Each structure stands twice: as structure tokens, then as C-alpha cells.
UniProtKB/TrEMBL annotation:
Protein name as annotated: Ammonium transporter
Molecular function in Gene Ontology: ammonium channel activity
Membrane topology (UniProt): Multi-pass membrane protein
UniProt cross-references to InterPro entries, sorted A to Z: Ammonium/urea_transptr (IPR029020), Ammonium_transpt (IPR001905), NH4_transpt_AmtB-like_dom (IPR024041), RhesusRHD (IPR002229)
Entry's transmembrane regions: 23-45, 52-74, 116-135, 142-163, 178-200, 212-231, 243-264, 285-313, 333-354, 391-418
Record-linked SUPFAM superfamilies: Ammonium transporter
Species name: Daucus carota subsp. sativus (Carrot)
Cellular localisation: Cell membrane
Family: Belongs to the ammonia transporter channel (TC 1.A.11.2) family.
Amino acid sequence: MEFPSNLAADEASPEWMNKGDNAWQLTAATLVGLQTVPGLMILYGGMVKKKWAINSAFMALYAFAAVMICWVGWGFQMAFGQNLVEFLGKPDHVTLDQKFLLDQAFLGYFPNATMVLFQFMFAAITLVLIAGALLGRMNFVAWMLFVPLWLTFSYTIGAYSIWCPDGWLAKLGVIDFAGGYVIHLSAGVAGFTAACWVGPRSRRDRERFPPNNVLMMLAGAGLLWMGWTGFNGGAPYVASTDSALAALNTHVCTATSLITWLILDFSVFGKPSIIGALQGMITGLVCITPAAGVVQCWAAIIMGLISGSVPWYTMMILHHKIPLLNQVDDTFAVLHTHAIAGALGGILTGFFAVPKLSRLFFLVPDWEKYIGLAYGLQTGRRAAGFKQMGVQLLGIAFIVCLNIVTTSVICLFIKLIVPLRMSEEELEIGDEAVHGEIAYALWDDGEKYQMSKNNSVYDVDEFPSSMSKNASYELSQMV
């Protein structure tokens, strides 16, 4: 047996690489990926009407695959590469080069390949969250065009501006720990804007849109919640005390938000709602995301109380009083669960951020940045605290304006090529008209089953009268 040379071993595990950090980052990336495939696929597929189960899950699956190709092709370099302008990197195919992928990432003690994979998972889930506002009526071909265009001309700008060390908001000191701005605020605003351009679901679907499988919906929601351990825990790019704190704060805030929403539902409507509890879960996850590793655990509880009540009020009360919110058909209310919850998280981060924890995350000694307003007032650094709050508000304004403009331009461009909305016939029939498939194929629906070793296929009505349907079904199960 030939053992690898020392040179080969050094190349496989260079001195700058921390194996523990690399292993954790790959694990975190996998957890975030599971939030999307299968998490959001199952959540969307179970939460919609039966006739839209395939289309909804398929939109998520397609987005995940399409973003992967775009990300390694040019997206990662536009979001984290060499500076082109203050808010965007140079598009480059260097991400496909082996030498680049094996070199050390711009942050952390692991290779670029790990960073590219982890950041891809963030980019992919953002597009899938946007789909939540468009389910049940968007033309699938239009969606196929929307995904690469929005990733290229919107997501990369937000990511570069806030997360890349050369980005203009990053230089100002904005705190977005794991994507409250880049992912959730962006997805909520873009989803609502796109829903405005695409148009509403059919009148019948808007009036009645019950979930087709509540248990499957819960399974998807569970994957989403548990996967958030990697979502926020992976943000520091290191297996550290800060990543552990981020994971704990995530679950504390989420549990508090879920229970708060549940209590409000029960108090106002008289019944505890499972769908309401899931909404509270999501708003808690979103709200803590920009703050997860820079706030104390008691602050996470306060954030959970706010994320479980303010979005509840905007969704359950205010939504029905504002004409614009009524007119735009936001299928899964991503404006409330992601845009409003994400903005709340950013503001509360600016208030509760602990200077010591911020320094652990950003690894800088700068005392004039990353100071929550509460601590600025407490320590006499009021100017620094108010400045941090101002930067947080500026980040919100930038992401909102960016996504309204870019999403509108993209939708108008796609509209020149294909319709944004399905035809009336497709809206009436659903999956069978759009994809030629249905989610739940029952024997009585006349589905075809493979019956013989020579792969002959028979329809229910083709069986001889001497063979009962039950017998033929049992036979099909044996093949």
C-alpha cells in the first residue's frame, strides 16, 4: 500500500485550515439546505390547496437547482468578489477554478469551497421564500426566468453591500448577523412586489385556500425550525462560543414568539390555531436572525415577544384595514412574516447589540461601531449608540428600495417575453393542467399502474371484468 506523501497531506489539510471549523461550516450548510430541500418543499406542498401541491413544491426545487448553477457561475463573485462598485462585485467565473476553491476563504479558517457552498444555501432559500408570495398562480416559465435574474441583479447587491467587507453598508458598521436584511427583508419586499405585478390567484382560491395536508405542513415547519441552528449558528464562520450563543438565542426567541402568537390567537379568536403558531414560529426565527449572536438571552426573549405580537397585529388586524395590503395577493403573507419581522429584528439589533458580543462576531476592537443603543446610553457613548441605530435604519431603507425597484424591473422585463400569470384554465385546474401530474394519485382516479414484467401498462378500465379493482391493485403492488 502506498501512503500519501507529506506534500499531498499538507495540500489536503493546510496549516491555515481549522478542521473543526470546516466540519461545522459544512454541517451548517447542510442544515440550511435541508430547510429548503426538503423543508420548504414539504411546507409549501402541504400548506396549499391539493391542486397546487406539486407546483408549489416544484417551484422550490427548481429555484434550489437554478441558484446553484448561477451561484458558481457568477453569483458568488458578484456578492463576495473583487470590488466593481461600492455595492457590487465583479462577475467572474473564477469560482469554478480549482485553485480558487482550495484557497482560504476571505473569512474563516476553511477553503473557499466551503464558503461558496454555505453562501449558496443562503441565496437559494431567499428565492424559495419569495416563491411563498407567488404560489397558486405564477407562470412556471416566468418563474424559471425570474430566479436567475433576481439572484443576479438584486440578491448579489444586497449581499455585497452588507456582508462583503468591501460593501458600503458593511464599512458603515451595519449589523446583520445571519440575514435578517440580506435574506428575509429582501425576500419579503421582493415577494410582495412580485405578487403585485403577477396578480392574484383565482377568486375561488383567494376565498378558500385550506392546507391539503396539515401533518406534512408541520413536518416541513419542523425541518425549517431545526435547520435554523445551522442558519444562525453558521454565521460566525467558526465553531465558537458565539456560534453556540447564536443557536441558543435562535430557539429561545422562536419558542417565545410562537407562544405569544398562540396566546393572541386564543385571546382574540377563541381557538388556538396551528397555522397561527407556525406563523409565530417563522416570525421569531426571522426576527432573531440579524441579532442571534450579538444579543443576550434575555433580549432574545423580548425580541420573541415583539416578533410574536407586532407581525400578528399587522397580519390579523392592520392587513384588513389598508387597501394596498388587501389588493396584493401575498399567498403566504411573506410581507408580514419576513419583511416586517426582518425589519423589526434589524431595529432591535441596533438597540440590544452587546459591544463585547459584537467584537466576538466581527473580530474587531473598534468601540465606535456595533454598539446597541441601550448599551450606548448605559455607558455614556450615546453618539455611538444612536449612530448604530441610524445605520440599521439606513440598511432597512436600502434593502426595501433596492428590492422594489429591481423586482419591478425584472417582472416588467419577463412580461415582455412570457405572461407572468397562468391562464384562467390553468388557474382553475391546477397541477394537472400545468405539469400533467397530481399530488395524490388514487386508484379510483383512473391512474395507471405497471402490471407485468415486460413493463406493460394498463388503465383501470382496461382490466377484464373477472379481475376486481382490489385484486389488480394488489397485483400492481407486487410488481
